[in-house]
Amino acid sequence: MGTIDTTVDAPKAIVIAGLLGSLMSLTFIDGMGKRQRFVAVMAGTIMAHYLTPLIAHMYAEDNYAETIGFLIGLFGMSITAAIFRAIQSSDLWNFIMRRWGGNNNTQDIPQPPPPTPAPGGE
Q1: Is residue 115 part of a domain?
Q2: pLDDT tens by residue, the chain, 122 residues
Q3: Into how many domains does the chain fold?
Q4: 107 lies in a domain?
Q5: Which residues of 15-51 are buried (b: 16+ CB within 10 A; e: fewer)?
Q6: 70 is in which domain, residue-wise?
Q7: Which of 2, 29, 76, 115 sits between 20 and 30 A of 103, alpha carbons compared?
Q8: Is there a domain that residue 122 lies in?
Q9: Cβ(72)–Cβ(18) below 8 Å
Q10: Is residue 45 a contact partner of residue 15, using CB atoms and an 8 Å limit?
């Protein structure tokens, strides 16, 4: 009789951990419809799949990749939502213009010429 291989390769294990983490995160979030829940689970799983190897490599913690994937799935959408709330509540455009747009003097911005009157005196 052959033996059954019960090991799961690392990428699948990370996806499963991210999926379980994002499913568990739904227990802490109220007021979401079925579509929003599905998107949240898929986003948490996808973030875990792509971000886990990066974070594990950055911190030289390859042995804990599944744990990192679970935590990304669990907290990924909450962190993303917080980032988007911070961006929406800040004056991001004003910051960009102050940082990279030169001075805030609108007189330096070229203005279009005034419209020319139409022939016939109107």
Answers
A1: no
A2: 556 555 567 788 889 999 999 999 888 878 888 898 898 899 999 999 998 989 888 888 888 888 999 999 999 888 888 887 777 777 776 777 777 776 555 555 556 667 777 676 55
A3: 1
A4: no
A5: bbbbbbbbbebeeeeeeeeeeeeeebbebbbbbbbeb
A6: 10-101
A7: 115
A8: no
A9: yes
A10: yes
